Amino acid sequence: MTSIPVSSRAGWQMKKPSIIPGFGLTLGFSLAYLALIILIPLSALILRTTSLGWSGFWAVATDLRTIRALETSFGTSFVAALINVVFGVIVAWVLVRYRFPGRRFVDAIVDLPFALPTAVAGIALTALYAPNGWIGSLLAPLGVRIAFTKLGIIVALVFIGLPFVVRTVQPIMEEISREIEEAAATLGASRFQTIWRVLLPGLQPAILTGFALAFARAVGEYGSVIFIAGNTPYQTEIAPLLIVIRLEEYDYAGATAVATIMLIIAFMMLFIINLIQAWSRRRYGYGA
């Protein structure tokens, strides 16, 4: 009978099998996917921008048209994401807690912006909110103009971003038992106190995730915005459109510079949101 060396047996005993099988394979695939799909293209983008040099990059970054376009993109995206958080939570609450005729139909409509081409959404919204549109004609006598203004951009971004909040919050809301609300009511909590102190703390991580997804989606939106924005330089021109304009002018370095600036700002904002989300998870005991 062949004996196993002591060193081999000790090494075999010290090596513990992985709880999740295939960890090495899946980790390698994940890293390769991350590198090929995300890191390498972004590295090429930054590398192309370096051809401008620091002075050229700074000139693009401080150009008034670039600054205005970035302000329009990130400002309207932030406002639209905030609006989507409020109404997305309300829509999710209605779909989870109430049963009414046509609920399945309403639930399906929420996903419509996912499947609808953004250009189609932009044309439809412009037709509705233009001064001679169904809704725009009603608001025009009141002095309210939506199409071809920043307000129109916000409307378009709210339309395409709402499903991200609803579909992020809805599963978490379904897991909250009604018994928790009943227990809070028996302890003397008002309806507002139950929502503010019992329900919202559990939903806060999901709400922040939905906000981050809606914001990230809105920052890069192009198709639905260009139709309703009016695309006036220094006023309603968004950063993605400015990138396209630079490409049409064969200013590839300038286009990649604007894209790099957008990348840096978006990464910083999403990083801050993730830090807040991690803090909220630790505070309310949901893990890091």
Automatic annotation (TrEMBL):
Domain of life: Bacteria
InterPro entries with a match to the protein in the record: CysT_permease, MetI-like, MetI-like_sf, Sulph_transpt2
Protein encoded by which gene: cysT
Residues of the signal peptide: none
PANTHER family: SULFATE TRANSPORT SYSTEM PERMEASE PROTEIN, SULFATE TRANSPORT SYSTEM PERMEASE PROTEIN CYST
Summary of the function given for this chain in its UniProt record: Part of the ABC transporter complex CysAWTP (TC 3.A.1.6.1) involved in sulfate/thiosulfate import. Probably responsible for the translocation of the substrate across the membrane.
Organism: Phyllobacterium salinisoli
Matches recorded under SUPFAM superfamilies: MetI-like
Assigned keywords, A-Z: Membrane, Sulfate transport, Transmembrane, Transmembrane helix, Transport
Main location: membrane
Topological type in the membrane: Multi-pass membrane protein
UniProt xrefs under Pfam families: BPD_transp_1
Protein localization: Cell membrane
PROSITE patterns: ABC_TM1
Similarity annotation: Belongs to the binding-protein-dependent transport system permease family. CysTW subfamily.
TM stretches of this protein: 20-47, 74-96, 108-130, 142-166, 198-216, 252-276
GO cellular component, as recorded: plasma membrane
Location of the ABC transmembrane type-1 domain: 70-273
GO molecular function, one term: ABC-type sulfate transporter activity
Protein name (record): Sulfate transport system permease protein CysT
Lineage: Bacteria, Pseudomonadati, Pseudomonadota, Alphaproteobacteria, Hyphomicrobiales
